Amino acid sequence: MTVGAIDLTAKATSEVRLADSSVDLGLLQLQLAYNSGVAFSMGNTLPAGVVVAVTAAIAVALMGYAWNRAPQAGWVERIAGGSVIGGAVANVVDRSRDGVVTDYLHTGWWPTFNLADTFLSTGFSVIALLHIRRELTTSTPKPMEDHPPVMTGIA
């Protein structure tokens, strides 16, 4: 829940500090925006209640998966899962207040986003990489008798 608290604090601070201005940090600007949709503003024409209900259901599903996965997960996967859940919950809480998510990180070449989005993306990426790595390291080669004989060309 620390992840969610960090994001919700950053959103509240952004709404106060960036209401009438923006801050240029070079590659990144702090600029207040509101997103009524989900990722990349998809679904922005749906009623807010529908978006809140769907995103809340997804967050609950993620928590259920994490709860079942935790006993087998290593510490990196647990931290990544916590980042995903914290980011999802923070965005649901923010959206449930007024139907929009507060965004404040702007690049100019990517849609404006927030820390919760960063936690979600990073957490999912780490989990995906861990699972890909596990697949690569746990796959066992077939025994030699399962392979056809190799012709060497030597008579």
Walk me through the structure.
This protein is 55% helix and 10% strand. The protein is mostly helical and 155 residues long. It has one domain (2-132). Strands 1-2-3 form a 3-stranded antiparallel beta sheet. Pfam families: Peptidase_A8 (PF01252). The chain crosses the membrane at residues 46-68, 75-93, 113-132. It comes from Knoellia aerolata DSM 18566. InterPro entries: Peptidase_A8 (IPR001872).
Q: In short, what is this structure?
A:
The chain contains four helices and three strands.
What topology does this entry show?
Elements: H1 2-17, E1 23-24, E2 29-35, H2 48-69, H3 75-98, E3 101-106, H4 115-138
Antiparallel strand pairs: 1-2, 2-3
Helix pairs in contact: 1-3, 2-3, 3-4
Keywords: Aspartyl protease, Cell membrane, Hydrolase, Membrane, Protease, Transmembrane, Transmembrane helix
GO molecular function: aspartic-type endopeptidase activity
Family: Belongs to the peptidase A8 family.
Task: Give the N-to-C terminal Cα separation.
Answer: 70 Å
**Strand order, sheet with most strands:** 1-2-3
Q: Tally the helices.
A: 4
Q: Biggest β-sheet: count, sense, barrel?
A: 3 strands, antiparallel
Uncertain segments of ≥5 residues (pLDDT<50)? none
Shape: globular
What is the string of helix and strand elements?
Answer: HEEHHEH
| Beta-strand percentage range | 5-15%
Give the domain tally. Answer: 1
Count of strand segments: 3
Derived structural class: mainly alpha
